[in-house]
Input
Amino acid sequence: MSTYQRLQKPVILCADDYGIAPGVSRGIRALAAAGRLSATSCMALFPEWPAEAGKLGDLVDRIDVGLHLTLTDHPPLGAMPKLAPGGRLPPLGRLIRDTHLGRLDRAEISGEIGRQLDAFEAALGRPPAFIDGHQHVHLLPGVRDGVLALFDHRLDRRTTWLRSCFEPTATILRRRRDAARALVIAQLGRPLARVTAEAGIATNVGFSGVTSFRSNRAVDHDFAGYLDHTGSRPLVMCHPGEVDDLLAARDPVLASREAELAYLRSDLFAERMARHHMVLARGPHPDDRNAMPS
Output
């Protein structure tokens, strides 16, 4: 690593939703191959997942590839008669309500968490570099216990980390990017941040990228805000991808994915990183070994 790079601040830039549709996966692979990402989070419950996992090739050794635990809106991998009696997981609002009212069957949740981890490992032949949740479900009471249990029974704390979504209120307000949503997520993330610190589970420190997915927003303006007032080991999430028919059938977030994809491919993104003295890095402890070359 050069002297200039050592003066830069490492940041984990993670593209969520790999595996949700071929166009999203294709866009994420292109960014990773170009050195424009340092992590991607994978949805392992779709039929296309094994094929999309195989297409990652040597990228699994160049970026962190994690499990994007999914407990909303889509068919689970196994029977869940209480949470998904019709074979489809509930919308986020219902899941949040049920978790906070203590209505979740924790054994059922743990079973699906295990199945999605099984599917991830079967396709990639390795455990995930990290765990997080689609729509941040890993933060919810009744879900987070099942996620934390993985670190007692299946995952090595030396090699797998967990996404923290906690940010101090003052930091979020200074950033002024979708602050209301970010404050809610940070509040949900506070208990997990406390438990991981006590349990010695590695996490990022600093979290940004919360967006309302407006298709007409100025991406560079938002991204500049995400790089401001970051923690010591920050993670910025993003949702780039190419829109295809399968994505349109599975998710409402469409145009903003293509806007993010175009931005992350652009010289403007590279210039923004340079102006903020940031360098892409893997894992929760960025250092000379995992900082990515510019």
